[in-house]
Specification:
Blueprint (H helix, E strand, L loop, with lengths): L1 E4 L10 E5 L7 H16 L3 E7 L3 H9 L10 H11 L4 E5 L3 H5 L2 H12 L4 E5 L12 H6 L3 E5 L11 H9 L3 H8 L4 E5 L6 H4 L5 E6 L7 E9 L2 E10 L10 E7 L10 E11 L7 H22 L1
Parallel strand pairs: 2-3, 2-5, 3-4, 5-6
Antiparallel strand pairs: 1-4, 7-12, 8-11, 9-10, 9-12, 10-11
Pfam families: FAD_syn, Flavokinase
EC number: 2.7.1.26, 2.7.7.2
GO molecular function, one term: riboflavin kinase activity
């Protein structure tokens, strides 16, 4: 369990009001819930807490059953950064969902985590909130344990119920404009830059690599991007996928070429903001064909930035 205090408690015995969920993508539906949590906490002079997970529960169960994971909209680092930047939350708690947690009954989860470890007094959750082994826990179980629980009713955005499932559906169609509307921002990925196979550097096209390991990203293809490193914004071309031409495709990667930049950035934290879709990720017959296409991608990206400015 990871606890990140955004603000310090005003008093020792201050009441805590929490919400809990995957919060994948932090879309407008999530923000409606967070804003209500903030308003209720302020009205009651209480601390506001968001409880989330990493690994996400559905990812854990997919791994256990040997099925492909549902695509992830946002990485944990981005989720935490976005929540912290909002200044609406006092504390973020990240629970590692594993075999032990999956076995907890609703009563055990409430007693072990909500009551003993986190000292939750009140919760705000969606009407369909479920928890505990086999998702048997409901709002009634929270109330039975003496946790005051409010049921949150979502407000639609432009007559649409915004959900993570909707964002994933739009991502499969590369509908970046609608995604931007429903998230309130572009999709972004933040992680530490790791060393790749150095192949692109040999062709005069060095890249920065963010290794996602088992996390399956919701976007897939070649994109125009902004990249933020140490407060500096760079223009880039980003490949999200498995690099099928040059790798065995066992892990997911985010690989970005910074336009007209060649500097050592290994080990730094980078945020890749996705701006526009260029084309699907393809497997080419040879490296010459691959890099010929990559140079064209660079030209297309430069054209985008000229139009944008």
């Amino acid at each position: 369990m990871l606890r990140l205090k955004i603000t310090e408690a005003k008093q020792k015995q201050q009441k805590t009001i929490a919400t809990i969920g995957n919060f994948d993508g932090m879309h407008r539906g999530h923000w409606q819930l967070i804003e209500k949590l903030n308003a209720v906490a302020k009205a009651e002079n209480a601390r506001s807490m968001v409880i989330t997970f990493d690994t996400l529960p559905h990812e854990y169960f997919a791994d256990q059953s040997g099925t492909i994971r549902t695509p992830r909209i946002s990485l944990l680092r981005d989720k935490v950064m976005i929540l912290a930047e909002s200044k609406l939350i006092d504390e973020i708690v990240v629970l590692h969902f594993n075999a032990s947690m999956a076995k907890l009954s609703p009563d055990e989860f409430i007693e072990d985590y909500l009551e003993e470890k986190l000292k939750i007094d009140q919760m705000i959750v969606g009407h369909d909130f479920r928890f505990g082994a086999k998702a048997r826990g409901t709002i009634a179980d929270l109330i039975r344990h003496g946790i005051v629980t409010d049921e949150f009713t979502e407000v639609k955005h432009n007559q649409i119920r915004v959900s993570s499932s909707l964002i994933r559906e739009l991502a499969s169609e590369q509908q970046l404009g609608l995604i931007r509307d429903y998230l309130g921002r572009n999709i972004r990925y933040s992680s530490r830059i790791v060393r790749g196979n150095q192949l692109a550097r040999k062709f005069g096209m060095p890249t920065i690599n963010l290794n996602l390991c088992k996390i399956r990203p919701v976007l897939w293809g070649i994109y125009v991007s902004y990249v933020y490193i140490d407060g500096v914004r760079y223009n880039g071309v980003t490949n999200i996928g498995k690099n099928p031409t040059v790798s065995e495709g066992k892990v997911y990667k985010i690989e970005t070429h910074l336009l007209d930049v060649n500097t050592d950035l290994y080990g730094k934290i980078a945020t890749v903001e996705i701006l526009e879709y260029l084309r699907p990720e393809l497997k080419f017959d040879d490296l010459d064909t691959l890099f010929k296409q990559m140079y064209k991608d660079m030209d297309d990206a430069r054209d985008f930035f000229v139009r944008a400015n």
